[in-house]
Amino acid sequence: xxxxxxxxxxxxxxxxxxxxxxxxxxxxxxxxxxxxxxxxxxxxxxxxxxxxxxxxxxxxxxxxxxxxxxxxxxxxxxxxxxxxxxxxxxxxxxxxxxxxxxxxxxxxxxxxxxxxxxxxxxxxxxxxxxxxxxxxxxxxxxxxxxxxxxxxxxxxxxxxxxxxxxxxxxxxxxxxxxxxxxxxxxxxxxxxxxxxxxxxxxxxxxxxxxxxxxxxxxxxxxxxxxxxxxxxxxxxxxxxxxxxxxxxxxxxxxxxxxxxxxxxxxxxxxxxxxxxxxxxxxxxxxxxxxxxxxxxxxxxxxxxxxxxxxxxxxxxxxxxxxxxxxxxxxxxxxxxxxxxxxxxxxxxxxxxxxxxxxxxxxxxxxxxxxxxxxxxx
Length: 377
Ligand SMILES: C[S@@+](CC[C@H](N)C(=O)[O-])C[C@H]1O[C@@H](n2cnc3c(N)ncnc32)[C@H](O)[C@@H]1O
Fold this sequence. Notes:
Elements: H1 3-21, H2 28-36, E1 45-50, E2 55-60, H3 65-72, E3 78-82, E4 88-92, H4 95-105, E5 113-116, H5 122-131, E6 136-140, H6 143-155, E7 161-164, E8 177-186, H7 191-195, E9 197-207, E10 210-216, E11 222-229, H8 246-252, E12 258-263, H9 271-280, E13 285-291, E14 294-301, E15 306-312, E16 317-323, H10 328-341, E17 350-354, E18 360-364, E19 370-374
Parallel strand pairs: 5-6, 5-8, 6-7, 8-9
Antiparallel strand pairs: 1-2, 3-4, 9-10, 10-11, 11-17, 12-16, 13-14, 14-15, 15-16, 17-18, 18-19
């Protein structure tokens, strides 16, 4: 065993100990998987973003193995692909979130699992470690990522079924999956996934800024609660698209439009309201600009071509300018009104029922307490 391998093993053990101590990793079988699969085998070069300082640090295992390995075995998201505007389009997910999701998935030997978002292949490797290659199918929209993951998985001895394509369509198999896990964010749960999952099977997916865990029923519907805050990079449909940056969102909302004075709802900056807003209105991008002369909320929905900006006036009102077919500010204030009246529920009090035709109904505390149908995305 080389000195480097020894370092890697020690760093892996440290990471697993930390994930256990922090309450993300409980099950010995997943602890063994994180100890047994080398994360560095799936990332040669990567970037780490520090949101506290706004800095990006580039690592290269070949150039500075020590520094790169330390980052690989920190609880960090490793960005492995950026679009033309600098937004990450693929990464190796933060290990604590991977561990949490693998345990929430309640996947066991004998199950067949479909992963949406192959990325580096590291999560697929963890699944193969526990379930065996034959049980794992993984799909990514980017064929180059799929081929790279196939090579890297093979180099460390794994051979799951890998497919290039749009994971929102699922992957039809000879028999339904027991589990579907999505590692990219979706605006809605695709009806195809319900049809491809067996009765009693589980779908775990990020909608808005939260994970939802659905169980498929005998009638082909699926239902379950939001379990945790989490935000993955969103599903892509076109590899050539460049994601909107904060600068783009502010620019899109900085236009002439209809001006009015409107109420400024309480709690606009609360995380649980932002999460709810992202679930209900998944195509709306929102940025808050903090200026010396006060805050400015900028919203844009590229799908409907709508936008809004609002400047609070200090008296529970705001000067609002809107444009396009949807009034994005009215949508936000209506939702904030419900959320305030309902006692500001955290996402874990919310749940979702998805019909076999893909219609979504949001509920509070239990399915018998519907809140609203979610608009189709
Ligand atoms: C956070 S990364 C996945 C991390 C991965 N599971 C790993 O272990 O490295 C998100 C991935 O979702 C993929 N993705 C985005 N849109 C997709 C789509 N429509 N279908 C399938 N994969 C998609 C991206 O290309 C990206 O690789």
